[in-house]
């Protein structure tokens, strides 16, 4: 049963680490495809878990597919997967080239490029915000008349909330357009001159975590997203499972199911972000052909008893994946951020890992520059709380968060201010 080699496109990051550990514990050899500079930055511990690697240039997809497929053939690789948002399209191309379970290479572009996504979702009858692709400020002004205010301005193929702004006025929209144009584009990506203007969807935000195997989709959980208000919507936490009224849950599942098929997800995880309005109508904001980030995999593991990492390996290997919950608990993650930019002086009061707190992570070194949260990358740390009931778990998470003290020197003559 075991022993088949597995290849990950980009092996860095916590989700990749969990998949690598799950693969190693089942006796799989694990290979990585990585950009040379990124591979050089892998920790010694990560490199030690890898049997081999192929270094390639992800900015040249045709060449990368060729090199990765050749490496895969040489090493008898029987599964290819990624949790890196920017590499999901490449993963589909490599899987198709090798005849391995994966997503439809002709359609998964629509799970990456939000202009193509809006078109594919609308064509499939999925409720999604009216979206316009624009190039310059002249088009912006004309589009604002059409889309209305507030609107959302975002990069065409961004992730991690980078360069996404909810704009409430024409002046704010012009600044937001510039922020979207100049947002980072890992691996080159789409033309930075084009940006998206999208109608604002009011309501409560959720994501749906799903796994599709051989075209059949299982929705594992609806996740409640805790998000800041204002111009920059930054996630402050996630909780699952969210229990929606049955008709609302049915509407959410219906839209998400249609979205998954519209963007060609055939074998793999998906993370679909939706907004449910006051009348229970569900709008799909975006869909990604990968497992959710932000510790949602850990929440699934603790709340539902599903080993999502093993399941994703099984899907990639074409083996039946175990996707039925074995527990019915609740789990939440809270992200730790700084309220203003400056130099990190100290922090204290982090929860201790133990019963009901299975995960605590701090990633900002003392003395480093920290930013007011404007994107997911600005998180300083996070912790997960689990337990039997939602109320008890959420209360504990709030209480633990209140004990965390983050001291940041804001680069002024002011003394160091304690920040929560
Ligand atoms: N059309 C919209 N209506 C209302 N809110 C929106 C809309 N589009 C985006 N947002 C808000 O902005 C956030 C980030 O937008 P979006 O998900 O498109 O960006 P992203 O870079 O893909 O983020 P991530 O990778 O963190 O999911 C959303 O989670 C939501 O809070
Ligand atoms: Mg999003």
UniProtKB/TrEMBL annotation:
Write down what this protein is called.
ATP-grasp domain-containing protein
Top-level taxon of the source organism: Bacteria
Q: One Pfam family for this entry, by name?
A: LAL_C2
Keyword Iron-sulfur part of the UniProt annotation: no
Which InterPro entries does this one have?
Answer: ATP-dep_AA_Ligase (IPR052032), ATP-grasp (IPR011761), BL00235/CARNS1_N (IPR041472), LAL_C2 (IPR040570)
Q: Keywords assigned by UniProt? A: ATP-binding, Ligase, Nucleotide-binding
Which residue ranges does the record assign to the ATP-grasp domain? 118-317
- Lineage, please? Bacteria, Bacillati, Actinomycetota, Actinomycetes, Kitasatosporales
């Amino acid at each position: 049963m075991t022993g088949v080699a597995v290849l990950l496109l980009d092996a860095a990051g916590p989700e990749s680490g969990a998949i690598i550990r799950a693969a190693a514990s089942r006796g799989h050899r694990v290979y990585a495809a990585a950009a040379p500079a990124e591979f050089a930055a892998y920790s010694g511990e990560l490199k030690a878990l890898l049997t081999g690697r192929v270094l390639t240039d992800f900015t040249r997809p045709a060449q990368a597919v060729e090199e990765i497929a050749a490496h895969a053939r040489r090493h008898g690789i029987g599964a290819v997967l990624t949790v890196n948002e920017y590499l999901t399209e490449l993963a589909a191309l490599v899987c198709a080239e090798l005849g391995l379970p994966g997503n439809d290479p002709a359609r998964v572009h629509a799970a990456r490029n939000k202009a193509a996504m809006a078109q594919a979702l609308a064509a499939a009858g999925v409720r999604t915000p009216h979206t316009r692709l624009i190039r310059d400020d002249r088009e912006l002004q004309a589009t604002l008349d059409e889309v209305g205010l507030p609107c959302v301005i975002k990069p065409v193929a961004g992730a991690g909330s980078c360069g996404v702004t909810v704009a409430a006025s024409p002046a704010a929209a012009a600044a937001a357009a510039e922020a979207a144009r100049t947002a980072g584009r890992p691996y080159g990506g789409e033309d930075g001159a084009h940006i998206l203007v999208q109608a604002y969807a009011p309501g409560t935000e959720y994501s749906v975590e799903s796994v599709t195997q051989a075209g059949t989709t299982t929705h594992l959980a609806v996740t409640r997203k805790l998000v800041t208000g204002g111009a920059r919507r930054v996630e402050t936490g996630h909780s699952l499972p969210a229990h929606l009224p049955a008709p609302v849950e049915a509407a959410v599942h219906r839209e998400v199911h249609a979205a998954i098929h519209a963007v060609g997800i055939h074998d793999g995880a998906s993370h679909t972000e939706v907004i449910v309005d006051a009348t229970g109508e569900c709008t799909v904001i975006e869909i990604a052909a990968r497992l959710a980030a932000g510790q949602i995999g850990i929440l699934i593991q603790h709340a539902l008893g599903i080993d999502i990492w093993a399941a994703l390996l099984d899907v990639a290997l074409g083996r039946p994946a175990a996707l039925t919950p074995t527990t019915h608990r609740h789990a939440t993650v809270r992200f730790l951020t700084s309220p203003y930019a400056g130099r990190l002086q100290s922090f204290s009061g982090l929860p201790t890992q133990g019963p009901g707190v299975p995960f605590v992570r701090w990633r900002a070194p003392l003395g480093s520059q920290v930013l007011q949260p404007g994107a997911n990358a600005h998180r300083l740390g996070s912790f997960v709380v689990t337990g039997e009931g939602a109320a008890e778990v959420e209360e504990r998470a709030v209480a633990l968060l209140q004990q965390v003290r983050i001291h940041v020197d804001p680069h002024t003559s002011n003394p160091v201010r304690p920040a929560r």
